[in-house]
What we know:
This protein is an alpha/beta fold. The protein contains 14 helices and 25 strands.
Amino acid sequence: MSESSESYDFIVVGGGSGGCAVAGRLSEDPATSVALLEAGGACDNWLVKTPYTLAFMVPSKLNNWHFQTVPQRGLNGRIGYQPRGKGLGGSSAINAMVYIRGHKSDYDHWASLGNAGWSYDDVLPYFKRSENNSDFNGEYHGQSGPLYVNKLRTDNPVHEIYLQAAREAQFRIRDDFNAEEQEGLGLYQLTQHNGERWSAARAYLQPHIGKRSNLRVETKAHASRILFDGTRAVGVEYRQGDKTLQLRARREVILSSGAFQTPHLLMLSGVGNAHALAQHGIASVHHLPGVGQNLQDHPDFIFAYMSDRPYFTGTSFRGIARQLASIGKYRRDGRGAMTTNFAECGGFLKTRPELAAPDIQLHFGMAIVDDHGRKRRWGTGFSCHVCLLRPDSRGSVGLTSADPLAPPSIDPNFLGEDSDLEAMVAGYKTTRRLMETPALQALQQKDMFTAEVRSDDDIRTILRQRVDTVYHPVGTCKMGVDDATAVVDPQLKVHGVQGLRVVDASVMPTLIGGNTNAPTIMIGEKAADMIREELRVN
Length: 538
């Protein structure tokens, strides 16, 4: 039995990148009341603020939902790992902080599918509005937004070695991946400020908690179902400790729980494929078969090498000593190894010159990564990820039971299409060109995973053995019109019901060419603008 409920203009379910942005912006108007429900904690301690500690959060259950996939047919039946942020900031509280928007053509493609208002020219102002960039300004960047974006502060000499390797491999050098052109290799900008992680919660929410009387934030509040009056969403039921509580929404319920948990909550609440819901004893509120379909993620392969050079971290006596020594510098100056996001270098490449946009992305890391850091190895070294930016494979999210505390069923369908495997073979070869340059070979003591890989068949074999996520799931509540699989319209309103909107990465109809945190924040910014315009008109 639920306890008595209170009412707000808007209830935001999920304090991730989209939820923090939309809640923060809507609550700027003191006449608009906003309640945000977050299943995790506050994420406002040193563990979240210190960039280096992502190495402890990503492999573990610290601020992390720690999901798993179903067995992946394209990966020899392996069960994949899906870390997702649990707490205010969502995955921006545990991610590698890389600030990337994607390619111009990604958004123009969304618009070409009938999603008016989502072209690159339409979304660029929202990227700029969100951004407070310490280094770049002008046509493509903003310097007055709440989201701090900075260059690396690790002062690591390996940066120059990486750039030298890029030159030796005859790849372009790119200073800014978020301007007119994307192709090339270089150093990433990060969502940091004074050497600390700057999550979406720090940008949009935490400065206002307790200061805006119209903003209520509840943590450890796990939404269990959307409340409907007919087909109108009127509130949310949630569990907090041993209590079951309700909040009522006078205007809208906004779902911002991410590509896995937003469709999960919709299905638990009776919005989804009616036949599939009936199998779990859930009555249908509205038959919407696209809910949970169209899951897309970047399949990722990692090269890794042992190295005793003092640029890298890892489990060794010297490596641990260097990290301990770096703590003092971090406390004094906000610089040094503790500010690492590990994926300090990288970039975007074409595996074929005729492509209109890069089709692979590299993340060059300052440690050996094996199974997302869950398999620890003695020694120091470095890694290089290569991911396929626009895979053809489509997966799904479903229910495992009607229990709202049970995890969703997650099937990314990695390498489910042969075209993705062949594209990854090309990506492997392109990345190997960089790894085999004199500059990087001079750092390598031992090739951890690929020493015996020579033929294309060898490459296909190791890809199926080792590919997994690089943490960019999208698409499970796709935006679209005149599309039987679409879940939301271009205003992000859920088709067939009223008072319900989705504001997170699940609305992306297709996967963008890059990291998904900045685009999800952009979606939150744009959603707040659309909502405010509707309030003004009505």
